[in-house]
UniProtKB/TrEMBL annotation:
Protein name, entry field: WD repeat-containing protein 11
Keyword rRNA processing: no
Organism whose genome encodes this protein: Oreochromis niloticus
Biological processes per GO annotation: animal organ development; cilium assembly
Gene3D superfamilies with a match to the protein in the record: YVTN repeat-like/Quinoprotein amine dehydrogenase
Gene: WDR11
GO cellular component terms attached to this protein's record: axoneme; cytoplasmic vesicle; Golgi apparatus; nucleus
Source species, domain of life: Eukaryota
Compartment list: Cytoplasm, Cytoskeleton, Cilium axoneme; Cytoplasm, Cytoskeleton, Cilium basal body; Cytoplasmic vesicle; Golgi apparatus, trans-Golgi network
WDR11 TPR domain ranges (all copies): 989-1158
Location (main, coarse): cytoplasm
InterPro entries recorded: Beta-prop_WDR11_1st, Beta-prop_WDR11_2nd, TPR_WDR11, WD40/YVTN_repeat-like_dom_sf, WD40_repeat_dom_sf, WD40_rpt, WDR11
């Protein structure tokens, strides 16, 4: 009785999953690395979700019926809270034109979208507006772009174009600009908006292929050395973009593979050709840089430009990834080659990884890079491999090679946007911009080498994920779980492949357990003889006599030892049709096509009997149970054998105990088989004696028997015409069911006592039957609910089936055989995965708050149980798992007391892949520190030292140019001058010259502008105009009358629609502030901001930018997040704090104000009480109070108490509520809050 009470859970829970294999050619472009830190990859009609840090597949999404051609993760550039949580959202498009938006964690489709039935060409989530984060733009062939709401699946608008659209690229700096790559050229759209379709048809430009413009190659001077390949290429592409349609032969050469805006600097674009990358300046529509491949080099297939540094990741046809970084334009003294000083953008090769072996079936498809840190790349190979490369920086000088002309790369001296403390821990390879410093531009000083270290970049392979080989497969699950083997049971699936190897997968984790090279030809079948060993057979291609080489191998899994089971036999004989192991694993029957069967004893490896020549031709074989034994039935149809086994469960324990107690005792086994006429024969085997038994006449209603299965009192026969016959042996009844599905290929009973479910395989799919009720449970058929053909079937547990299919996948499915997406939180992963997006929304926000600030204790902890946190233990456990999965380096940095609040905010936003947080804290951290530094210089030295945190002014303290108008004006001016100098060198037509002169006038470079204006040739219609303009520019004096005349003319021009010309005149008389005002009035906000940065003094510039910020906040623009960044760059910190609070960004507001107070850029006077009485600082207290309330809803009570205590009298009520019924506020918390306020 005591024993009966122990509950045994015999069925180990296996998750439904898909083991994937090689990719389809249509999956080539279906890969994306999201801000969430995961890679999505299309594989046939499924989508794999890969964690690149641990190289594991953590989800497979199945719902598409056609091959997946595009996948895109949604962007994370919005403020995250409980109503807009961290969630994994993915859009995927397939070859039949269907788009599905997924909730990846639960594996369910959020919405499905269908417009046309052709493959989706391109997909992108709109990220650059605050209105909605659900907008999805798609290219539906041949020539439509459609804007969808990805949350509801509604169509917002649709627009058609004249040519076929191949792909598109958004301008990262201006949401209204986008470029379409079409079959004929490029279409530039300047009025893109989410509220209505673009009004115009866009500006169409044609790409004259680099090789199709010989007219523009300059004749080389006689003395000059012959130019190298790259120089030749540069000469060829003097003119690239033309407004006229090129000649017919030029169009055929248009093999542009890709077009992308550069996210590292505004108004630049790259075009990729197989042998060169062209960098265009869009203001001039002119090539300003070329990366060309020498004649012997390997062509490009893809390039990804970086945002943090002006660098390019390039993928070549041999699978090699190279990193090229833009060379500094600072003129070095040793510029020996005078042509080198002719400026152009040069991208130097700084690092490359190893190539792969490319064959007919193995070629690189696509590369993706991590968008958060830009220092990791993943390469997708056509055979299903994903190779994960990491870029590492090694300190040390390069081997000096003067001819290479490579200037050294330096690592920045700061970490997470702040100078490094003396004992501070840092992560060298955190991100690309923490590994190498910025590309210097003309006018900047070279860094002093004392505090900067020179670094070399190297690629390191950190992960490899491989898929199944090409089908066909033969699959067999290991023997089922029983009470006897429960302690050491592993659910192993053996997969025989076409190249002769056997792969063994552990289905708990879905990972490859072992790969064994067993045979020299295609594996035809596998039978397990124990939990750790199996027999597999393979047959070679037949010779002209129809004879083959048969290989039958016995494999021991723990040691990997293989031996030929039939010894020397096997050469030149008819092929083996099947092998069958008797239920007690004592005997093996080997059935041949045109040769009597063989009966072997597995334990001794001896041949018991080879049947006589006149033995009947066997057609079906199954295990029966007569008396105390098991039987096997063999069968053959039209001289082709099929074999199936079933196990009467009642004898399982009995038989197992017999075989375990003594190997010498051999139970009697019965074999039952049918011949070609359907007559049933019966033989008995005991020890090494074989006896013939009874015969049963054939059943007339069945066709040729194809397979038999037996379990308990049920016998099932299947025939070549699709009839199933169910025999109830106890009641002596039989029922025939016509399935009308053609040849019954295989039938198998499910394991488990009393489990009478049956799995049936046909040529066009599979069915599960309940043999007790004689009813079909579920069905799958090619063309109806799946688009793949089934190659082999088996049960893997009592309620799950495993199917091998011709799309190269093996699927573990529920008995209903529906799609195999699963809940990610039910996964049993081998390595823990850092991904806060997998947590519940509340838990993810709690984890973030926990990492951001733990001011309630002197030290930081990584143990969530040490915190006053009221939450279910299960959720606490999940949060702790996330913390545990962080790398040791990351943990030690997060626990480092030297890490400042600003650095911590930046680091956590990187960890979470939170785009919005990252942009905010990068700009905030930079300007809080630079304004603090400026204040410190103005305050007297004694006071200054007290206020500062020892911030040293570093030589390169400016924002990266990828922040564009948010950069310091002085740096922005230098960059624009550098750029106009490059445009001047590169100009090749009057149009270009005119644009350069205009830019120079706006920048105040009048002398150079005059030189350009005087270049106009006499036969040009603008000759007279330009000459007069040159005279005007040189004679302008600051006398009153001339100024007022020019101002009058300028305003008239502007009023009559000549805005650009009027603005130029105003700039000539130093009225740039008026010019900015006019530009803003006419809606040219970006141009006005640009002009303010390059021409105005700080006060005037600040006015212009503040007006811009107000415009960005207006309801019709609604881009407050951008307005906040603009205000940060102006140092309007009070306003920023107020706006953050009004937008209900409570944690960001409180932490920002805290940082401002710490750095002394917001006044808090001497005593902390004044802080709460000053009306200007009222929002400070409310911000602290609201953050305290937020922490309370998350369950972090100590944190809530601390921020409430900072909110003065306003927070007292909340404090009382927090500690109700505990006899007042604990002393410890009061003491800590005082310490916190003082610090």
């Amino acid at each position: 009785l005591g024993r009966a009470m122990i509950p045994y859970t015999v069925n180990i829970k296996l998750a439904a999953r898909t083991l994937t294999g090689t990719l389809n050619l249509q999956n080539k472009t279906a890969v994306d690395w999201g801000w969430q830190g995961l890679i999505a990859q299309g594989c046939h009609s499924s989508i794999l979700i890969i964690d690149p840090k641990t190289a594991q597949t953590i989800q497979v999404l199945e719902r598409h019926k056609a091959n997946v051609v595009k996948v895109k993760w949604s962007r994370e550039n919005y403020y995250h809270n409980l109503s807009s949580p961290y969630c994994l959202r993915l859009a995927s498009g397939d070859a039949s034109g269907k788009i599905i938006v997924w909730d990846v964690v639960s594996g369910t489709a959020h919405c499905e979208i269908q417009e046309h039935s052709k493959p989706i060409q391109d997909l992108e989530w709109l990220w650059n507006q605050d209105a909605s984060r659900d907008l999805l733009l798609a290219v539906h062939p041949p020539n439509y772009i459609v804007l969808w709401n990805g949350d509801t699946g509604t169509k917002l608008w649709k627009k058609s174009y004249a040519e076929n659209i191949l792909s598109f690229s958004f301008d990262p700096f201006d949401p209204s600009n986008m470029a379409l790559l079409t079959s004929e050229g490029i279409v530039f759209i300047t009025d893109f908006s989410y509220s209505k379709p673009p009004g115009s048809a866009g500006k169409k430009v044609y790409i004259a292929s680099p090789h199709a413009s010989p007219a523009h190659t300059k004749p080389a001077p006689a003395t000059a050395p012959a130019p190298t390949g790259a120089k030749k290429a540069l000469n060829k592409v003097k003119v690239l973009i033309t407004n006229e349609k090129p000649t017919a032969e030029a169009v055929t050469l248009n093999d542009c593979l890709q077009l992308s805006y550069l996210p590292s600097k505004r108004n630049h674009m790259l075009l990729l050709y197989p042998r060169e990358i062209l960098i265009l300046d869009l203001e001039l529509s002119q090539t300003v840089g070329v990366v060309a491949i020498e004649r012997s080099g390997v062509p490009f297939i893809q390039v990804i430009p970086c945002a943090q540094r002006d660098a390019l990741y390039c993928l070549h046809e041999n699978g090699c990834i190279t990193l090229r970084v833009c060379r500094s334009t600072v003129a070095t003294e040793e510029a020996a080659d005078p042509e080198q000083s002719v400026q152009e953008l040069v991208y130097d090769l700084r690092s490359q990884c190893d190539a792969i072996r490319v064959t007919k079936t193995v070629r690189p498809y696509r590369m993706v890079i991590c968008p958060v840190n830009e220092n990791k790349a993943a390469l997708m190979v056509s055979d299903g491999r994903a190779m994960l490369w990491e870029l590492r920086a090694h300190t040390g000088k390069a081997a000096t090679n003067p001819s290479s002309g490579l200037s050294p790369l330096y690592s920045p001296v700061s970490f997470c946007g702040a100078p490094l403390g003396p004992n501070q821990k840092k992560i060298q390879d955190l991100s690309l911009n923490s590994m190498i410093g910025q590309t210097l531009i003309a006018g900047e000083t070279l860094p002093t080498s004392s505090n900067q270290q020179e670094v070399q970049l190297k690629f390191l392979l950190t992960g490899l994920l491989s898929g199944l080989p090409l089908p066909p497969f033969a699959i067999r699950m290991c023997p089922p779980l029983t009470t006897k083997n429960i302690n050491h049971y592993q659910p192993l699936l053996a997969v025989g492949t076409s190249n002769g190897s056997v792969l063994v997968y552990n289905l708990t984790s879905g990972l490859l357990h072992k790969e064994l090279s067993v045979h020299s030809c295609e594996v035809r079948g596998i039978e397990w003889v124990s939990l750790t060993s199996f027999l597999s057979f393979a047959t070679s291609a037949p010779n002209n006599m129809g004879l083959v080489r048969n290989e039958l191998q016995h494999v021991d899994l723990p040691t990997g030892r293989c031996f030929a089971f039939r010894g020397e036999r096997g050469n030149d004989e008819p092929p083996i049709e099947m092998i069958k192991v008797s239920h007690l694993k004592q005997y093996l029957v080997v059935v041949f096509r045109d040769k009597p069967l063989e009966l072997w004893d597995i334990r001794t490896g001896t041949l018991l009997r080879e049947m006589a020549k006149n033995f009947p031709t066997v057609t079906a074989l199954v295990q029966t149970h007569l008396h105390t034994n098991k039987n096997v039935v063999l069968y053959q149809v039209k001289n082709r054998y099929r074999f199936l086994s079933s196990s009467p469960y009642s004898l399982l324990q009995d038989a197992e105990s017999k075989s375990e107690t003594s190997q010498a005792i051999s139970a009697r086994e019965h074999f039952v088989f049918t011949d070609t006429d359907g007559q049933v024969y019966h033989i008995t085997v005991e020890g090494n004696t074989v006896k013939d038994g009874a015969r049963i006449p054939p059943d007339g209603s069945m066709g040729s028997i194809a397979c038999i299965a037996w379990k308990g009192d049920t016998l099932v026969l299947g025939d070549v015409d699709g009839n199933l016959n169910f025999w109830d042996l106890k009641a002596r009844l039989s029922r025939g069911i016509p399935t009308h599905r053609g040849w019954v290929k295989k039938i198998r009973f499910a394991p488990g006592k009393g489990n009478q479910k049956l799995l049936v395989m046909y040529t066009d799919g599979a069915e599960v039957w309940d043999t007790k009720e004689v009813q079909m449970v579920s069905s799958m058929r090619i063309g109806r609910n799946v688009n793949y053909r089934i190659l082999d079937i088996d049960w893997c547990t009592s309620d799950k089936v495993v199917l091998a299919s011709d799309d190269g996948c093996i699927r573990v499915l529920e008995m209903a055989m529906k799609s195999a997406s699963y809940r990610m939180d039910e996964q049993d992963l081998t390595d823990p995965v850092w991904c806060p997006y997998l947590l519940l929304p509340r838990a993810a926000l709690t984890l973030k708050a926990f990492l951001l600030l733990q001011p309630w204790s002197g030290t930081f902890t990584m143990d969530v149980t040490q915190v006053d946190y009221s939450e279910k233990d299960e959720i606490k456990g999940l949060i702790q798992e996330q913390l545990n999965s962080l790398s040791n380096d990351m943990k030690s940095v997060l626990q480092d007391p030297e890490l400042s609040l600003l650095q911590r905010c930046l680091l956590v936003s990187r960890l979470f892949g939170d785009e919005s947080d990252l942009h905010f804290w990068t700009v905030a951290s930079h300007y809080i520190q630079s304004f603090a530094q400026a204040r410190q210089l103005t305050v007297s030295a004694a006071e200054g030292q007290a206020q500062s945190e020892g911030v040293q002014p570093s030589p390169q303290s400016h924002l990266d140019i990828c922040h564009d108008v948010l950069c310091e004006s002085s740096y922005f001016q230098k960059f624009q001058l550098d750029r106009v100098h490059l445009q001047e060198v590169k100009r090749s037509s009057y149009e270009h010259t005119k644009k350069c002169a205009d830019q120079l006038l706006l920048l105040g470079q009048t002398d150079r502008a005059v030189q350009l204006l005087l270049e106009t040739s006499a036969d040009n219609p603008s000759y007279y105009c330009d000459s007069l303009k040159a005279c005007l520019v040189t004679t302008i004096t600051s006398s009153g009358p001339s100024q007022s005349t020019i101002k009058l003319v300028a305003t008239n021009m502007i009023a009559n629609g000549k805005l650009a010309e009027g603005v130029q005149l105003l700039c000539l008389i130093d009225k740039a502030a008026d010019a900015c005002r006019y530009l803003q009035t006419y809606g040219e906000w970006n141009r006005a901001a640009w002009l303010a940065k390059v021409r105005l003094n700080p006060a005037e510039s600040s006015d212009v930018l503040k007006r811009w910020a107000e415009h960005l906040c207006s309801p019709q623009v609604n881009h407050k997040s951008k307005a906040i960044l603009v205000l940060l760059s102006l140092g309007c910190f009070y306003k920023v704090g107020e706006m953050l609070h009004s937008m209900r960004h409570f944690d960001r507001a409180a932490l920002f104000i805290e940082a401002c107070l710490k750095y002394g850029v917001m006044e808090a006077n001497d005593s902390s009480n004044i802080l709460f009485e000053n009306p200007l600082l009222l929002h400070v207290t409310t911000a602290f109070l609201d953050y305290a309330r937020l922490l309370r809803t998350l369950g972090l009570r100590e944190g809530a108490a601390l921020w409430a205590s900072r909110a003065g009298s306003a927070g007292e009520q909340l404090m009382e509520e927090l500690f109700q019924g505990e006899g007042g506020i604990p002393e410890a918390i009061l003491a800590r809050s005082l310490v916190f306020i003082e610090s």
